Each structure stands twice: as structure tokens, then as C-alpha cells.
Amino acid sequence: MLGAAEYRFLTTWCIDAPVERVWDVINDWRRWPRWWPGVESVVEIEPGDGNGLGARTRHRWRSRLPYTVTFDLVVTRLERPYLLEARAEGKLAGVGRWRLFEGEGTAVLYEWNVRTTAAWMNLLSPLARSAFEWNHDVVMRRGGAGLARELGASLLTAG
After folding, report:
1. What is the DSSP annotation of 61-87?
2. How many CA atoms lie within 13 Å of 78's alpha carbon, on the beta-carbon side?
């Protein structure tokens, strides 16, 4: 593998909605294209067990930069309604972890720790890292706003 670039992102959304409702929308991967701009498609490859553990979905994303990224997510941990973790495989490899916290609304903390596996991304990383990071931030801001709209709730903060 040509010098994989590693990325660590931390995103926080505060949504004026109960944790169970936020969980239900985030945990329903197949509905993401409906509310999350940039998610072109999510296809179920394997359903996993009765709770969704082990489920494999293929995600296709596109944002402001002129490229599309496709990768699989395999659910590795589920603790309803507070923790959802998945392993990424494909053009991105690593771990994504959703943590939800109850309060007057729901605080959503998303950790995305991945490395690129596509040769062109690895080759461009020294020059394009800041553009890739900016693109990720755009995707996540749009996701927070889309989640709030889907829930009919207010996005209190996003960062």
C-alpha cells in the first residue's frame, strides 16, 4: 500500500430531540441518503444478527470535491441507544463510533478514525490533506442539519 494517510475527526451535534429518536434515525443506515446530503447510496450487503450486530452496508459518498468514495461499514458494537460502532473497509479503512448522550436534547459525538487505501488519495494526501479535511467538515455539517430536519428538531450546535 502506498503510504496510507491517516485521519482523525471528531464531530459534535446537539439536537433538540430525545435520544431514542436520534438513535433510530442514525441506526437506520439505509435511510441516510434521504436526509444526509452527500450520501449517494447505502446498500445492505449482510443484515447481521437480530439487533444488527455484524451488519455490512456499502456506502457511497460525494460532497464538494469532485470525487466519490465508496466503502463498507461492518457493525462491531451496538449499545442501544448510546453507542454504535462500525469498522470501515474499502477506500477508507478504520473505525467510526457514534456516542449519544441524553440531556435536554441529545448530544451526538462522532469519531471517525480512518486511513485512505486508494492510491490516488494517498498520492495526493501531502498536498490535499487540508481539502480532504475541509470536505469532511462540510459533509458533517450537512449531516447535522439533515438529521435535525429529519427529526423535525432544532440543531442546537454543530462542530
Report:
1. EE-SSS-EEEEEEEEEEEETTTEEEEE
2. 16
Phi/psi region, residue 90 (left: phi>0; alpha: psi -120 to 50; beta: rest), is left
C-alpha cell read off for 156 = 442546537
How far apart CA 140 and CA 23 sit, in angstroms, is: 17
- pLDDT on residue 91: 92
With b for 16 or more beta-carbon neighbours within 10 A and e for fewer, the 109-120 pattern comes to ebebebbbbbee
Taking the CA atoms of the chain, what radius of gyration do you get in angstroms?
Answer: 15
Q: Which amino acid is at 20?
A: E
Strand partners, 106: 15, 102
pTM: 0.91
Is the per-residue pLDDT at 62 higher than 70? yes
- Domain ranges in the chain? 6-158
In terms of Cα–Cα distance, which of 109, 73, 78 is closest to 92? 73
Is it true that domain 6-158 has CATH number 3.30.530.20? Answer: yes
The dihedral of CA 14, 17, 19, 24: what is its sign? Answer: negative
